[in-house]
Amino acid sequence: MSARESVVGVGHEKDADIRPGCVAFPVTCNSGRWRPSTSALGVQVPVTKLKKISLFVLGGFAYFVLGTLAATLLWGFSHHRYEHPISGHYFGSIRVWFTAQEDGPWFSFGLEAETKPRWYWIRPRSFPYPSALVKWSPSSLEDESAQLDLVSMKYTKGGVTAPLTPDVLEVWLMNPRDAEEAARGKRWAEEIHLWLVQISRGEAPPPRHHTYRFERPFHIRVSHFCSGWGFPGMIYISWIVWLLFMVFRFWRMFGGTKPQDLSVSSHLAYDLPPNPAILLLG
């Protein structure tokens, strides 16, 4: 009998000749003890292989986390603090105030709108707003409000829904006393209606931290914001580099491993009790 085999008998056992750095799978002897054997399974699994697998998984996870964090910090240092990444989970909010100039009939008209948060692979230049809440103070100084459906350009006020036209806006905003005021009021109402159409189509000024101010044909202030959390493009680049690196390292570490080196002979599967090493490597 070879010196590399374990002899299982009554009253005596011979240890297998095991190379340093290797683990041999055990077999049962008559005494009920477990002894290492290389002949039973015909293979020896290097301990270093298990260590390599563990280090490969832990190192890959650490590189993934650190790479993502480094890409985020790098993007933050190279961009303005109010600038948003190109992709992310965003929503827009806009507030617009229209007020008459001092040399004409006084009125105030305000609009508030907000979109639902959603994911954007490419963040739009401006957000389209399907609905809005408007409040105004006409020359009579009685504050009023209405809910607008900007898609169909209709309003709901006092339980009544009707089309929103420049003529309706003119009635809301002022009560002209002469032909000159009537002509001016109609022109202003048409300008506000045009702004509403642009807001519904996503053609309002792009979101930014500072307020927009326009002075013609009347005072206009626009506060447009983009909120949410974004993913800088550098993160996607770091993930691609991480994936290529992991594939390369896996091929370098395990590319030369033969399939039979990490498997167990099928005819012994029923003779051995459950063994964590066998389940892991099988």
Tell me, what's the shape?
Answer: elongated
> What is the H/E order?
EEEEHEEEEEEEHHEEHH
Distance N to C terminus: 29 Å
Category from helices, strands and their pairing: alpha+beta
> Helix segment count?
5
Structure summary, number of beta strands: 13
Number of domains: 2
Average residue-wise pLDDT: 74
For the biggest sheet, the summary is: 9 strands, antiparallel
**Helix fraction bin:** 25-40%
Taking Cα atoms only, what radius of gyration do you get, to the nearest Å? 38 Å
**Low-confidence segments, ≥5 residues, pLDDT <50?**
1-18, 21-41, 259-272, 276-282
Strand content: 15-25%
Summarize the structure in short.
The chain is α+β, with helices and mostly antiparallel strands.
State the main characteristics.
disordered C terminus; 5 helices; alpha+beta; 13 strands; 32% helix; two-stranded antiparallel ribbon; 2 domains; 9-stranded antiparallel β-sheet; 282 residues
Please specify the SSE layout and strand pairing.
Blueprint: E1 22-23, E2 26-28, E3 34-36, E4 45-46, H1 47-78, E5 87-99, E6 108-114, E7 118-120, E8 131-137, E9 144-149, E10 154-157, E11 160-163, H2 166-173, H3 179-201, E12 212-214, E13 219-231, H4 233-254, H5 276-281
Antiparallel strand pairs: 1-4, 2-3, 5-6, 5-7, 5-13, 6-8, 8-9, 9-10, 10-11, 12-13
What would you say this structure looks like, in words?
The chain has 282 residues and is α+β, with helices and mostly antiparallel strands. It has two domains: 1-43 and 263-282, no CATH class; 88-229, no CATH class. It is built from five helices and 13 strands. Strands 5, 6, 7, 8, 9, 10, 11, 12 and 13 form a nine-stranded antiparallel β-sheet that branches. A hairpin with a 2-residue loop joins strand 10 (154-157) and strand 11 (160-163). The longest helix is centred in the first third of the chain and has 32 residues, at 47-78. 16% of the residues are buried. The model is unreliable at 1-18, 21-41, 259-272 and 276-282 (pLDDT under 50).
